[in-house]
Amino acid sequence: MLFDNTQRAYHLKTDRELYKAYYLFRLISNSTLVTVGSWFAQLSLKLRLPVAPLFKATVFSQFCAGLNKEESLELVNKLESYKINSYLHFAAEESKTEEGMDISLANTLETLSFSKESSSLPFTVFKATALGPMSLFKKKGDKIDFTNSEEETWKRVLNRIDTCCENAKKMGVNLLIDAEESWFQDAIDEIAESLMEKYNKETPFVYTTLQMYRKDRLEYLKNLHENATKKGFKIGVKLVRGAYIEKENSRALQLGISSPICESKLMTDLNFNAGLDFILKNLEDCSLFLGSHNEQSVKRVIDWMVENKIEKDHPHVWFSQLLGMADHISFNLASEGYSVVKYLPYGPVSEVIPYLIRRAEENTSVSGQTPRELSLIEKELKRRKATVSSS
Ligand SMILES: Cc1cc2nc3c(=O)[nH]c(=O)nc-3n(C[C@H](O)[C@H](O)[C@H](O)COP(=O)(O)OP(=O)(O)OC[C@H]3O[C@@H](n4cnc5c(N)ncnc54)[C@H](O)[C@@H]3O)c2cc1C
């Protein structure tokens, strides 16, 4: 099986790094430890305790590319030598003041400028609510009229977003828009659609993100495609299952409304597959950016490509995994000639701690993923030991 080659998957990791990854995944597979660890991390951030070296040596080195541009580009170049592309994201969470949002824009533009120094950075990304007040995204989605001053603030949000697009377009770098909680997503969808209409006339350059754990997303995708066909633009879709399941379900429960999320993992998987199939059948005017660590999902696309004689590096099919996760998929796919893009967050340790907490929590809550990581690392450690003892 393509994904079982652990030698390829962990080529970049020394024995020491591999042991470290093993113990780290062991730790984060324990939900009590993760809860206590997250609490401690948040507290140490508040109290400004000097815990950065501890994080740097553990979770940071597994899930982040580096502290700055130089360290991150070093990893980008290493990955490039294994035919893996990257997309970088300055993972700090700025304050939601106008100044904080301008800083977020400046960080996004700076990260984008790194693409000048590498040919393996074909994508950039932004999170819409980093560039505008969450309250306005919610209000817009609820179709509540803005006050005059909110109108002015919203214009600045749209300007920041358009500046990202203009700059990415100038540099020939594709642009991904992350998907967020459903109560912000209607406004984000509206923005993403207008950007695709404006920028995707020739090729899918702007990519929206669809979370297929949402019951309504397949219908949304079909309508989006119909609309795009009528108006003459291409669609780019980052297809994911969705990261905010607990938040979504508990909010729905609190408000006494029906949850927007599928009732079971099986329903999410069926919805996800239907979304995948729809995009693949419309590959002429849709581009797929598959953000998943699920081997079956990746295999479904590969099988379809083989069956339909689609070239491995078709410009409308991309596979993506997060740094520090599912290397068995990324490295093995890339070595077979498929287009792989690794998501590389970077930034000062204290600023990326919220991202690291989410990574640890997700690895604890997503059943199946951490055991798979652990068993693959174990397999590789055994293989290395056997190689040493036989030589
Ligand atoms: C490159 C990349 C980019 C990403 N960008 C985004 C983004 O912009 N926005 C975002 O929200 N997420 C994003 N994610 C995270 C993604 O949505 C998933 O949370 C994560 O990838 C795990 O899903 P999977 O397909 O890899 O694995 P799997 O293990 O097959 O799926 C786990 C997922 O299934 C769903 N699920 C689990 N249990 C249930 C249940 N009981 N009922 C219903 N559904 C269930 C959840 O979505 C869960 O995350 C991204 C992931 C990657 C790799």
Q: Categorize the overall geometry.
A: globular
Radius of gyration: 21 Å
Count of beta strands: 8
Q: From N to C, what is the helix and strand string?
A: HHHHHEHEHHEHEHEHHEHEHEHH
Number of domains: 1
Characterize the main sheet. Answer: 8 strands, parallel
Instruction: Give a list of the ligands.
Output: flavin-adenine dinucleotide
- CATH names the topology as TIM Barrel
Query: Which class in CATH terms?
Result: Alpha Beta
Question: How does CATH name the architecture?
Answer: Alpha-Beta Barrel
Order of strands across the widest beta sheet? 1-8-7-6-5-4-3-2
Uncertain runs are none
What is the overall number of helices? 16
Straight-line distance between termini: 27 Å
Could you report the average pLDDT, rounded to the nearest whole number?
94
Q: Strand fraction band?
A: 5-15%
Structural class by helix and strand composition: alpha/beta
Descriptive report:
The chain has helices at residues 6-9, 15-28, 31-46, 52-63, 69-80, 98-113, 134-141, 148-171, 182-199, 217-231, 245-255, 265-281, 295-307, 327-335, 349-365, 369-390; strands at 85-90, 123-126, 174-177, 206-211, 235-240, 286-291, 317-322, 340-346. The protein has 391 residues and is an alpha/beta fold. It has a single domain, classed as TIM Barrel. An 8-stranded parallel sheet has the order 1-8-7-6-5-4-3-2. The protein starts with 5 loop residues before the first helix and ends with a helix. Flavin-adenine dinucleotide binds next to strand 4, helix 12 and strand 7.
